Fold:
Amino acid sequence: MSSQYTFTGQFTFSIDSKNRINIPAPLRKQFSVKDKKTFVITRGIDQCAWIYPINEWEIIQTELKQLSSLSKTNRVFLRNHLRHANIIKFDSQGRFVLPQSLVDYTTIKKDVTIIGVLNKIEIWNPNLLRKVDQSDEVDDQSYEQLSERVNI
Amino acid sequence: MSSQYTFTGQFTFSIDSKNRINIPAPLRKQFSVKDKKTFVITRGIDQCAWIYPINEWEIIQTELKQLSSLSKTNRVFLRNHLRHANIIKFDSQGRFVLPQSLVDYTTIKKDVTIIGVLNKIEIWNPNLLRKVDQSDEVDDQSYEQLSERVNI
DNA sequence: TAACATAAGTGGTTAATAGTGGGTTAAAAT
DNA sequence: ATTTTAACCCACTATTAACCACTTATGTTA
Structure:
């Protein structure tokens, strides 16, 4: 079964003196009643933070369990993906506290860019994202290959 | 299954001080009852905006969900496609608000050209479209290639 | 074809929501 | 016991969305 979440869009918000970040209303509205206010935040593979609604996270965990720890890649990935996973709630204003370890990892200072990517939400330092945009130009060949699989 | 939408025609409308654009009645009438008033607007490949009825977008989304974020190409592709996608409703007058990021991207000032292209609607700055019309003359060879796939 | 009726396009005002900032109290950690 | 952290509450401002109103175009009927 595929995800019930379809986060999209980009937003520029700010982090306050208490490390609180607001979740953009269009994204917040998608949190189901059951998962209300609860989600998991962890390190992204890129230098950003990933937010999953709690029941999405449970699906991810099921998939992660399939990975054998005999592979070094798997071990490293699992370790880094799980050790920084925090269960978080947002307050009555729709904000959450970004854990210090993720403030450091993402190098977020004042401004925050928030991007909806289907079943997860990415939290970026805007300056860093700009750099990534420039350097991560995916070569045409990769896109050509993708185009054979995705028809948009 | 092919699309239920067959948007056609060109219209010249205007954007108002609140960045509202009217959807031409002939196009608006095609929005089904279920999708009433809801659609997705995003960056086109050219310097225009693309509008998809929400259920057209869901077809695209289903394909995007197949892509694993463990692949870097996929991550960049997903992020860059989804970050500019806005879920939008039009008001009781049949207008919608063009997000600021797309106002910038399309360089739309006052006049707006709206074109129906089968399953999507394109939103252009008329001046820009004129330039593209002149420079984008498709060479004969490309048409030859197309002819192998499309029978018109 | 003239008059009327209806729909379409445009403009503005008001009410509701969203984003941000800060303070107070309760819980937790040192 | 003291300091730090986290939850909760209140408040202000800016933005957005809902509502109302007017003008122009289109179409219909006498």
